[in-house]
DNA sequence: TATGAATGAGAGTTCATTCAT
DNA sequence: TATGAATGAACTCTCATTCAT
């Protein structure tokens, strides 16, 4: 997790870093960094617990008491790391999303056909997002976005706009290579990812009633775009 | 005294008024139905107000005080119509959704090509859902669904499953008539509506950053499915 | 008590007044005004209780819980009458001081010598302020004034400046009549009341260690100003 | 290691520094006294900081965190010097008041007329108390006295009773020498200092609205007691 | 000796729900 | 039937105090 300390946590975090560097290689540095380490662990535990609770209950219905209990810390400890409930929520989303963005930026080497690229990407999405905590996060953002414009903004800026741009590039490549016939698709990359989004939402709302084979659905959707796959 | 009409806010209010007009002139009925009439109006006002507030703030953050104020009734009056906040929310969604279902059932006469049918449907959806209160309702259900399984269930049963079934029928018709080539599409009617759903969500979260021309997007999507439209 | 209702309390207070006027003389007005009456009583009880607690503990150390308990109401009821703890304190001082000012304005008929007037005034002060709740209020204002400028301002405007002006008028009359020799006294009416203030503070802090005969002290002070009294 | 010096904050700090310079060069004493020295300095800093904060906010509203920050020590360090917040406050007042008493005891040689003595005293009071931190301390004691009887007791015993006794002695001298005519004044020395006290309070509460020329007021008051001064 | 992260009791405030009118 | 004052449980946030380092 890339350090992005709260004001409250910054001093200890910074100092910890400094000290660790200074005592690099010296055994008895352990106790010094133990403190910082424990602080990091606590912070991580709070983030983890808060995420679970926010996803399970939404922002307003989540009790800080429950987050504390789940994280195994005292109520007051939360306030050593976050200013208040609101900014905790906002920061949380950032904290959880940043590594996602990082991974998106670590582009896979563009080899093979565009369809293969998109399939690889979709496969990854299936595994890592649909039906997972990460998927619930998406639903959380959809749910709370209007009340937390800064969260929606952040999510748009960091994830959506980049994702859209990436998709558009892929689509244009596909068009240039003749893999995609529908030229206007480049104007609406949302169409490419729409079924994936629907799958995310479907899983958390309706999976009970009618399980959805997301993988198959994506395949069909890609057939629509790239033309039917020959007999594999 | 119909205590719990399964009619939507507006329509029930309108009908109630109509009835009052109809019974005009019957002396001993007038005062009695006046009472009922007023009760109906109040109830409708509460439903309307509650919907606005729930959409704007979500379930937990909505105050009954605000609903009462907006509806122009006293706080206690709400409890004459609904058991408590939770069951009010659950009932509310039902009340608002029922007329939607009713309209869906009043199928438009299936004339013309399948594409024309779907386009008509999509056009209606564009006008009546995307960027409207009704669209926000969809987002509200996505947001609160996990905490209100009964709401999600109801929505699935009354709207989603029927909608899916209807789409499937259309798709099969399209396949039979040769308008749709991708045969597997019938297995995932979700693909047909996915961009529409995405448009709904996009409007309430990201319209500010990047307005989305939903109409055009739907057209492109239909081109994908039905093959490109010739020059008009 | 001149009605000066809080925003929260205003509606009920106003309506109560209106209704009371409307139903003047009609017996069954009782139940209607009972409500308003009870509300007034509650409000008065809160004011009374809050005053006691604030005097006993100061602003910061006073618990709303204790005020509620002492007033015999629920904690939430306080918020029907006052916006929050701070504005409750500020309003409280106003509420308690207003009748004091009213009484000051109801000037006693200026008969007899200036010394007699001043003695009458001092006698009243002795009876009504020194060693009473009212005296404690003065100490409370001294204590909290710097943290509640609005309170200090109000007290200065309504009580201190008027009191000073009144004293100055009396002193000038005394000088004109030849009862007071020290002409510069009119420039510092504070001197006239200083021992009275000291007596107020003394009673609440040191009475235990060394009781102070305030009456005698004031007499000696007046002798200083008016010259020794002959053997009456 | 003198644990609880009975010296005032500032003076002890200054003196401590002086001592450190004096013991410079004694090898094995240096580190030991360095420790004690640092401790003394810290303690003095805490006392100073605490005084400022208590005066500015009162006892209950003062945060130990702020005291620590202002003193440049960690929160925990305070507890190495004081048992808890309450006893810190009580001790503090003692620490700050002791040097005042000491100075009072170092009586100036009684030369000249009584009026001159009193004027010298009043002049000193004007300079050192009215409108200064020391004056605020008086207000603090008035404010917190009822909640800290031990503070009020201490202040009475060490300052008030001695001051009263001293004033009485002066007054009696004045009467004996014929400078003061009003014999009963000796029974109420409070009258002599009352305007000075009023000036202290006035400065911190009302100076903004109506500045008070304390020096002139005291002069007028002394004229009242000693008779008008001739044209110097 | 000094630190400051951690604690958790306790404070102010809100708001769903009740009930006398 | 309708009201809205009253309730008090429950929530967020603060801060004196402790203790491992």
Automatic annotation (TrEMBL), chains A, B, C, D:
It holds the Pfam family TetR_N. GO terms for molecular function: DNA-binding transcription factor activity; transcription cis-regulatory region binding. The keyword Transcription applies. Residues 1-34 are annotated as: Disordered. Keywords: DNA-binding, Transcription, Transcription regulation. This is TetR family transcriptional regulator. SUPFAM superfamilies: Homeodomain-like, Tetracyclin repressor-like, C-terminal domain. The lineage of its organism: Bacteria, Pseudomonadati, Pseudomonadota, Alphaproteobacteria, Hyphomicrobiales. The keyword Heme does not apply. Residues 63-82 bind DNA. PROSITE patterns: HTH_TETR_2 (PS50977). It comes from Bradyrhizobium daqingense. Residues 40-100 form the HTH tetR-type domain. It comes from the Bacteria.
